[in-house]
Design goal:
The complex is a heterodimer of chains A (295) and B (259). With 295 residues, chain A is mostly helical. Chain A is 75% helix and 0% strand. Chain A is built from 16 helices and no strands. In chain A, helix 4 runs antiparallel to helix 11 and helix 11 runs antiparallel to helix 16. The radius of gyration of chain A is 24 Å and the shape is globular. Chain B has 259 residues and is mostly helical. Helices cover 73% and strands 0% of the residues of chain B. Chain B is flat, with a radius of gyration of 23 Å.
Chain lengths: 295, 259
């Protein structure tokens, strides 16, 4: 199966290196552009070779722009609350569904599954969330719609529990006089830790990267997450100016390194992910393969 | 007014939608882009997974795996920044560092629609190939090694092994993922088609899909009726495609069917 032919090994490495480079270089361009002096950027454009290093963009963002710090706060808050709530709710749905003695099990399964096949689409969702649930411009707008509970995760967790927690174990716990909640807490949860960690990671990532809910349901600047801010800034440098704190003189727009700032904001948006990714890489890969191969 | 007191318009919104050329454009774009993503994405991911499987050094293999998954982890908003870094007219890397030294006059990427089908396909592949590659690679690792050993003894060369062992081993997962893709062929990644081209009006023919049309119908044109009609059309067709895809999977491989 593995070809020991030297030439072929070299070819395989070469191809993989090219691919790896194509994945890394855009990030390098992003990072280097963000620490290049504004003058050089205007003259030479974004490039891989910084002609003169200058961290004004970061200084501006972290000191003068309260909106960035706030957006970080919003993103962190939403990611933490959302991930915890999502895992708790998913578990509470998935565990009963894994039990064969749940009355009406197939009905519930069908209801969950149907949402995977069919959705009302954007317009009805929008009307429902804004007019009936009134979540526009609340923190819930970033947590609830389409993110809090997904059919796919429920099914994934249910399958995991079904295959990894034998019925006999639950039966034994019952005979020992454990109540349903005790069984869940002391027996099933400890055995389902791997899937919870994996799902938690994937859900956390999707909360961190979510910008659609912000685009649809949030117009209040205090509730902009880092992704929504990025989204607004790319299309609108004026927004950047207006979001700078008012303590600055009118000379701001002249001194504002807007070309570098664009890239600096993006770097701040991916920095945490890049920082934790190498340590959690195993989990990510596991999560992808668990999700892809059913059962 | 709520649902109950609103006047009933029957199928007028659908009539409006399908009388315009827009309906044809958005349907065509959505389907063609998705077909391209499915075909090229599968070929690329399977190819890379095979290459990865051939690499002997464990550390090298692990680092390649780590790196190609990176694009999957960042949001499409950040991807639009990366694309902007390369393609911006005034300061983009392509115009300034590649075309200028060659003496080619700069191209204003964000207002010439003809380049965008290629750009969008490249960006989509770049973002998603690592993910599907890992799925295929996990399947490859699971193929029993004794098959290969037997094949080598029988004198099968690299291509023969690939044709008779590797590809058949991957067949069912390729079929499943492809059908999953087909079932979502009426849906597009909103961010890829809206955010990456920076919502540029000049590119609308090349970048408008059903999802972006619904969003613009809601926000820019305030035409809720037509946007709902487009959304409903998407849902209905999508629903039947899922059923069809699942039915086909069942025919091929009972165990991999969704329901």
């Amino acid at each position: 199966m593995v070809d020991n032919n030297k030439g072929f090994q070299l070819f395989a490495h070469l191809m993989m290196m090219l691919l790896a480079l194509s994945c890394l270089l855009p990030f390098a361009l992003l990072f280097i552009s963000s620490i290049t002096a504004e003058k050089a950027l205007i003259h030479n454009g974004y490039s891989f070779i910084p002609s003169s290093i200058d961290i004004t963009a970061y200084k501006f963002l972290l000191r003068d722009s309260s909106s960035i710090v706030k957006a970080y706060g919003v993103t962190l808050l939403v990611t933490v609350i959302g991930t915890v709530a999502n895992i708790v709710l998913t578990t509470l749905m998935a565990y009963p569904l894994s039990r064969k003695d749940l009355p009406g099990r197939n009905v519930f399964s069908f209801f969950i599954f149907f949402t995977m096949l069919f959705s009302g689409g954007l317009v009805p969702s929008y009307i429902m969330w804004t007019q009936y649930f009134d979540i526009k411009n609340t923190i819930w707008a970033l947590i609830v719609p389409g993110m809090l509970l997904t059919a796919f995760n429920i099914i994934m967790m249910r399958t995991y529990i079904t295959t990894n927690v034998p019925d006999a174990v639950v039966e034994a716990a019952k005979i020992d006089g454990g109540s349903e909640s005790q069984i869940l807490w002391h027996v099933v949860l400890p055995m389902s830790m791997p899937i919870m960690a994996t799902l938690g990671l994937l859900v956390g990532l999707s909360y961190w990267n979510d910008w659609l809910n912000g685009l649809y349901y949030v117009t209040d600047e205090n509730l902009f997450s880092i992704q929504v801010l990025l989204n607004k800034m790319l299309l609108d440098v004026q927004f950047l100016m207006s979001s700078a704190s008012s303590g600055l003189g009118s000379g701001l727009s002249a001194r504002l390194p807007s070309t570098a700032i664009k890239m600096a904001v993006a770097v701040l948006g991916i920095l945490p992910i890049m920082a934790i990714y190498p340590f959690f890489q195993k989990f990510f890969v596991k999560g992808i393969t668990v999700g892809a191969v059913k059962g | 007014m709520g649902i109950w007191n609103s006047p009933w318009v029957g199928l007028k919104n659908f009539e409006f939608l399908f009388k315009t050329n827009v309906a044809w454009t958005i349907t065509r774009n959505t389907i063609l882009y998705n077909l391209t993503f499915i075909v090229l994405g599968t070929v690329m991911a399977v190819g890379v997974a095979m290459l990865l499987n051939q690499i002997r050094q464990n550390t090298a293999r692990k680092s390649y795996q780590t790196v190609i998954l990176l694009p999957h982890l960042i949001s499409i908003v950040v991807v639009s920044y990366l694309v902007f870094g390369f393609l911006s007219s005034e300061s983009g890397f392509v115009n300034k560092s590649i075309l200028q030294p060659l003496g080619v006059s700069p191209i204003s990427w964000y207002s010439s629609a003809k380049y965008w089908p290629f750009i969008l396909v490249i960006v989509s592949l770049w973002k998603s190939f690592g993910y599907s590659c890992i799925i295929y690679y996990a399947t490859l690792v699971g193929i029993d090694r004794s098959y290969y050993e037997a094949a080598v003894i029988d004198g099968a060369n690299r291509w023969k092994q690939m044709k008779h062992i590797t590809l058949p081993g991957l067949k069912s997962i390729i079929v499943i993922l492809t059908l999953m893709g087909i079932s979502k062929i009426f849906y597009s990644d909103f961010g890829l088609f809206y955010q990456v081209p920076m919502n540029s009006g000049a590119l609308i023919d090349a970048t408008n899909t059903i999802d972006t049309y619904v969003y613009r119908g809601l926000t820019k044109l305030n035409n809720v009726g037509m946007a709902s009609a487009a959304g409903f059309y998407q849902s209905i067709v999508g629903f039947f495609l899922v059923l069809l895809a699942n039915y086909t999977v069942k025919k091929i491989d009972e165990d991999s069917a969704l329901f």
